[in-house]
Amino acid sequence: MTAVYLGIMAVGAALLLALARWHQRLLPLERVLERPTWIETAEPLPPLAENLECDQGRIVLHIAAGETLAFAAPGLDVGPNGWAVLDIGGRRLLALLDRGSRKRTLLVDPDRAAQGGSLDAGLVGGWRHGTGRLLAMAGHRLLEVHGSFGRDRIYVVDPLQAAAGAALSLGIAQTLFGPRRGLTRIRTHGRELLAGDGERVWKTDLA
Amino acid sequence: MAKPHSKLHYFGASEEEYFHTVADRRTRLLKPLALLFVRRNVRSDAITLASGLLLPFFFFPLFGLRQYVAAWCVLILHILLDGFDGPVARLGRYASDKGALSDIINDITAMVVVALTAMHFGFADPLYGGLYLATYLYMIVFIIVRNVMDMPYKFVFKSKYYLFLFLLIKVHTHVDVLNPFLVLLSLYQIAVSAVGFFHLRRHLPGVLGAGTRGAWPSPDKVARREQRRARRASRLEKIRDRFNRLRRRA
């Protein structure tokens, strides 16, 4: 029987390790969870007014008016759709989703960062995203797409609240189920929320 | 504005206020530690699940291996984690009825695993243990149903921690306080369940569904179920039509 008891404990240890490793994918955060009706659409995702380049520890942000803001951000790894420019109370803020080992979403004042020459000079705050993949702006709010063992979760986040508490859960205003797993792009267009996986695009109304 | 509270708990009316006071105090006390979990995006359900896994996968086999001290340590860790999930949920601002339900299931599972362990390893008489388990579950069902229907018991004595204590005494001193405790508590739980049953029967209106209307399921769910039924009926009608046409042609 000793072997049976040891076996039961081994299974328990494996389950606890799996839970510790994948807790955020198994039991994703949620507040005001909604399952919107996603409709597949042929219309392409609207282009962004801004463009961001992240290369060798340097962030270059091209703004619509032809203005370019650049600053050093050593160790930061921002993906193609892992950033968003927000306008909060007339103040421009840049949200960056770091895919590196720190797995944090950073809120930066790009003008101050460009003046100071480094990300730290303009850093407003941040929070750990863990499983975050994509960012997009939705008015004064931020959309953060997270991978999970089911469909992707889209969090509508109040960035200032999340940054104030340094915790994603404190800023989540709403949680939406994505149309499927593995989304690669997300945008808002008026009250519409559009999400794409590289091949197809879906849309829904953002309440 | 009054704070919203879940009805999914198994406390009597007189205990509820005390329970919320203790919960608020616990949240304040554990805030620094709980915030570490909140900032790591650990949902309280993950803590509840970890707490629930400890007993069947560690407490039970450690008893089998006669590692009693280690087993008690696991039980204490389970109790601490069980008390910690609430503060994490409240500080992370995602406390919900879902979490309350998980917490109830975790509590009941703990009691069931400890009672089964006591019976399996010969510390409790299987008849008394089985009776205690069954009546405890009946009692919990009636407490929760009455809380949800806004007809709570005034006070209910819950014996979970006494079961743990008397098992500990039996294991380490061989003084049998456990079996008489199981019999006495079974009788008490039968009485509480009977009171709950007759009280509910007396207050439920004699119309099907009238007593629970508006509680579960939600109107959305009912609408979706009706839509599913209509779709199924329409599909069935189409199949019947096709079948009839084929039969006429044949």
In a few lines, what is going on in this structure?
The complex is a heterodimer of chains A (207) and B (250). By secondary structure, chain A is of the alpha+beta class.
Topology at a glance:
The complex is a heterodimer of chains A (207) and B (250).
Chain A lengths: L1 H25 L6 E2 L4 E3 L9 E5 L2 E5 L5 E5 L5 E11 L2 E8 L5 E5 L1 H7 L2 H4 E6 L3 E7 L2 E6 L6 E5 L1 H7 L2 H4 E6 L7 E5 L2 E5 L4 E5 L2
Parallel strand pairs in A: 1-13
Antiparallel strand pairs in A: 2-16, 3-4, 4-5, 6-7, 7-8, 8-9, 10-11, 11-12, 12-13, 14-15, 15-16
Chain B lengths: L12 H17 L1 H9 L4 H21 L3 H24 L5 H24 L5 H23 L11 H14 L4 H26 L15 H31 L1
Helix pairs in contact in B: 1-4, 2-4, 3-4, 3-5, 4-5, 5-6, 5-7, 6-8
Structural class by sheet pairing and helices of chain B: mainly alpha
User: What is the average of the pLDDT values of chain B?
Assistant: 86
Report the span from N to C terminus of chain B: 73 Å
| SSE order of chain B | HHHHHHHHH
Oligomerization status of the protein chains: heterodimer
What ranges of chain A have pLDDT less than 50 throughout 5 or more consecutive residues? none
In helices, the fraction of residues of chain B equals: over 70%
Q: Report the count of strand segments of chain A.
A: 16
Measured by DSSP, the beta-strand proportion of chain B falls in: under 5%
Helix content of chain A: 10-25%
